Fold this sequence. Notes:
The protein is of the alpha+beta class. The chain has one domain: 2-Layer Sandwich (YaeB-like fold), CATH 3.30.2310.20. It has three helices and four strands, in the order βααβββα. The protein has helices spanning 12-20, 25-37, 79-86, and strands spanning 7-10, 53-57, 60-67, 70-78. Strands 1-4-3-2 form a four-stranded mixed β-sheet, with helices on both faces. Strand 2 and strand 3 form a beta hairpin. The longest helix has 13 residues, at 25-37. The protein is globular. 20% of the residues are buried.
Amino acid sequence: MACREWRVAEHRRVIGWLRKHRNYLPLYQRMKNEVLEDPYAYARLKGKCSRYRRHKRGDIRLIYYVQGCLVVIVAFGFRKNVYKELGCE
């Protein structure tokens, strides 16, 4: 689907994580902007979490899904924890 302008919604777990790890806020903003340029450019997860996509930078993951013209960011954080939070292990 081609959207002229993507909207974004952030899950409260993302907001909470960023409050605890404020030094990752600039990285989060960059990754979010990259996703909003083309949300379908990033890899889809497999198995029971196949509705989600991930954008990765080192050990940091931004997990989201696309619904219409809305990008819903459901998790952001370290690789070792982010998949456990979603139950995607």
